[in-house]
Amino acid sequence: MRCDRQAAERADDPRFVAVCHGDVLVGHLYLAPAPQPLTWELGFVFHPAHGGRGYATEAARALVDRTFAAGAHRVVAGCDPRNERSWRLLERLGMRREAHLIEVATFRAAPDGAPVWHDAYRYAVLAREWRTSP
Fold this sequence. Notes:
The chain is α+β, with helices and mostly antiparallel strands. The chain has helices at residues 2-10, 55-69, 84-92, 127-132, and strands at residues 16-21, 24-33, 39-46, 74-79, 96-109, 115-126. The chain has a single domain (2-132), classed as Gcn5-related N-acetyltransferase (GNAT) (Aminopeptidase, 3-Layer(aba) Sandwich). It contains 4 helices and 6 strands. The longest helix is centred in the middle third of the chain and has 15 residues, at 55-69.
């Protein structure tokens, strides 16, 4: 299976953090340095069957806490505007929507081979904002 192969490839990559409930992998988070100084990029993928239980919020909050405690100035994240669960998670974390990028990404091709473009939201939170958020 493709997901098994990807999980095995990422097992030793410190940028990826697995989130499990018991023996079940419910999702993973990604955190890596961004091109800007003292800035980190947060990403996440969670299986929808495990949504609404707080796993993603708890895990992301803990990871962002650790990142700011280690001296980060800013944490950024992006998501597809059609994925309401993702942008609501970012807003629950106290991140601010800073941009709506138009036709910025493509991950597949149309039947004629042309790229299928989609929009993206960009979110961010600063260390000084995080310290004061609930």
